[in-house]
Amino acid sequence: MDSHPFRSFSNSVLIKRLSAFVFAALSVFVFSCANTEPQIVSPEVKLVYNFEYENKIAQQKLNVFLKMKSDVRRVETMKIKHNGTGYRWVITNPLISQSEGYYFAGYTNLEGVSAEEGIPEGSYTITYMDAAGREDFSEFELEKDLELNGLKVKDFLKVLKFKEPEIFVGIYSEQNNLLYYGNAKADWKITKEYSGIAADKIFLYKKDAASFRVFYKLKNQIFIMPRVLKNEENSPTEEQYAEQELKRQMDGDR
Questions:
Q1: Phi, psi dihedral angles at 157 (to 5 degrees)
Q2: Cβ contact 79:85 at 8 Å
Q3: Three-state secondary-structure class, residue 19
Q4: pLDDT tens digits, 100-121
Q5: In the predicted model, what is the mean pLDDT of residues 221-246?
Q6: Is 10 exposed, middle or buried (0-12, 13-18, 19+ CB in 10 A)?
Q7: What is the C-alpha to C-alpha distance for residues 33 and 148, in angstroms, rounded to an integer?
Q8: Binning pLDDT at 50, 70 and 90, where does residue 249 land?
Q9: What predicted TM-score, i.e. pTM, was given to this entire model?
Q10: In sequence order, which ranges of the chain are alpha helices (DSSP H)?
Q11: Contacts 24+ apart (CB under 8 A), 188-195
């Protein structure tokens, strides 16, 4: 998967008018492709630490997707089992997508038994089953950075300054729809120290923005900082919005 902790599931399909003969032949071909044996290439796993509040430890969640050669549109269930404890998740409606010649099936935000226990380390087995009852299996090993585990925001940032995280930003509307996810712009002044952030510049980037969150990525771990809300102190003026829109038009960045 890419650096985003969540996968995009929007695909567009253009269907052209075909003669009855060609359409029938195409239907047989599509059905035969969709009816192939499950073929897993590899699992793609991210452990997410979600800091909802500064004074509480992050809630751990697991994002698991299977990269597959076979068509996943007939997926029935996915079972993810922690081999050490027997704890498991059963996913009856996996999210599916297609990218770069591969199919993906999986789920985001899988939670542990409790916030205190989090997601257990160790080996996991994934069982994929299609609508015909055919199965394929895969395994992965989950390791945590113990220095960063079970911390509140203040203590997390003390450890993070000795790391080299990738930094991303998510900007959200008032309805919590994602307006932007990607690298931070230079004038946003977002660093691993998480101080001196130019929130007004971030809100200026998307006029409908109501909040943003900073994402720190370390290998297969994603740390999401608490939400920053737009308020009177960090809200751009209408003049600033107009200047920003003019600049985008001149730069060709719409």
A1: -65, -30
A2: no
A3: coil
A4: 899 999 999 899 877 778 899 9
A5: 82
A6: exposed
A7: 45
A8: low
A9: 0.79
A10: 20-34, 153-160, 199-205, 238-251
A11: 190/214, 191/167, 192/157, 192/160, 192/161, 192/163, 192/164, 192/165, 192/167, 192/216, 193/157, 193/161, 194/157, 194/160, 194/225
Which pLDDT belongs to residue 77?
95
Average pLDDT value for residue range 158-172? 96
CA end-to-end distance (rounded Å), the chain? 26
CA distance 103 to 159: 37
Would you state the structure tokens that stand for residue 108, as one six-digit string?
A: 């985001």
Query: What integer pLDDT is reported at residue 248 of this predicted model?
Result: 65
pLDDT score at 67: 96
Instruction: Go through 164-201 and write b for each residue having 16 or more CB atoms within 10 A of its CB, e for each that does not.
Output: ebeebbbbbeeeeeeeebeebeeebebebebeebbbeb
Q: Are 167 and 183 in contact (CB under 8 A)?
A: yes
For residue 12, pLDDT over 60 is answered with no
Q: What is the DSSP string of 61-127?
A: EEEEEEEESS--TTEEEEEEEETTT--EEEESS-EEEEETTEEEEEEEEEE-S-TTT-SPPEEEEEE
- On whether the CB atoms of residues 217 and 63 are closer than 8 A, the answer is no
pLDDT of residue 35: 66
- Phi, psi (5° rounding) for residue 138? -150, 160
Contact status, residue 168 vs residue 3, Cβ threshold 8 Å:
yes
> What is the average pLDDT across 137-150?
93
Please count the residues of the chain.
Answer: 254
Per-residue model confidence as pLDDT tens digits over 129-143: 999 999 999 999 999
